[in-house]
Design goal:
Number of helices: 10
Order of helices and strands: HEHHHHEHEEHHHH
Strand content: 5-15%
Length: about 270
């Protein structure tokens, strides 16, 4: 978890570099107008249904690209926690709903309710990133918290003060970066972010098509053979430790605690795939 760069996170690295490359190519070729969606005229008048499949290909301005790149870099922790196979499976299974739901919601519900005021959906994989962010929120624990004091007043005691301020955690930076994406091109960017978060929660709670949270891509796509060998070695070491503890004549509370921890880790890696 403390490794720098994209160690043990090849899918995140591919996602980041692919997003940067596609955004640069679109900017250089001056084809940004092909990727965002306007319900009128793109969908209703010109019938350009292909935009429903391409609008998450890139970002059309450097600010969104910067914040998205930094967000992906921080969310690589999810891939390290799950493994590349589960991480890639999550991206592929959540891509169809994050592609189709935001434009459908915008065209069929929000635009009529707002009397055609909401008509624009900005380009970029914001829904996919927020689906990942919901997993980060649920799976990654807070390590520390800190307070930024806005005022301080002496208390009745001479040894302490009471401070008022804002409390943040080590995860606050990630939420701040993602929040910039959600607020970048209101209201369309907020719609995309909200739908992405909802899809991520539904995937985690297995709300939707049966088994969509349990499907996995073939292991060879993400180098599963090398990954399996690494976990197989760890499994053998844990089994050897359990056998050594089980053969000892004196098994005290410490031994039982170590054996229980080893068995728990072994069960976790057995069920990993």
């Amino acid at each position: 978890m403390l490794s720098s760069g994209f160690t043990n996170a090849p899918v995140s690295q591919f996602l980041l570099f692919g997003l940067i490359a596609s955004s640069l190519i679109v900017s250089i070729t001056d084809t940004k107008y092909l990727f965002y969606i306007q319900v009128v005229p793109h969908l209703w008048r010109y019938k350009q249904a292909w935009r429903l499949l391409t609008w998450q290909t890139c970002y059309t301005n450097s600010t969104e690209l910067l914040f998205a790149s930094m967000t992906i870099y921080h969310l690589r922790l999810i891939e390290r926690l799950w493994g590349s196979r589960k991480f890639a499976s999550f991206l592929l299974t959540t891509l169809p709903p994050t592609l189709l739901l935001p434009p459908m919601l915008l065209a069929l519900i929000l635009r009529p309710l707002t009397l055609n005021a909401i008509n624009h959906l900005p380009a970029g994989p914001t829904p996919l990133l927020f689906a990942l962010l919901s997993q980060y929120h649920a799976a990654i624990p807070t390590v520390y918290k800190y307070r930024i004091a806005t005022s301080s007043s002496p208390s009745s005691s001479t040894t302490s003060t009471t401070a008022d301020g804002l409390v943040f955690s080590d995860k606050s930076l990630v939420y701040l970066l993602a929040g910039q994406l959600a607020l970048s091109q209101l209201p369309g960017s907020a719609v995309a972010a909200g739908v992405g978060w909802g899809v991520g929660v539904a995937w985690r709670d297995e709300i939707g098509p049966g088994g969509w949270g349990r499907w996995r891509v073939p292991g060879w796509i993400v180098g599963g053979k090398r990954e399996d060998e690494g976990f197989e070695g760890l499994r053998r070491r844990l089994e050897g430790e359990e056998r050594g503890l089980g053969s000892g004549a004196d098994v005290g509370p410490e031994g039982r605690q170590r054996r229980t921890l080893g068995r728990g880790m072994l069960d976790q890696f057995r069920g990993r795939f």
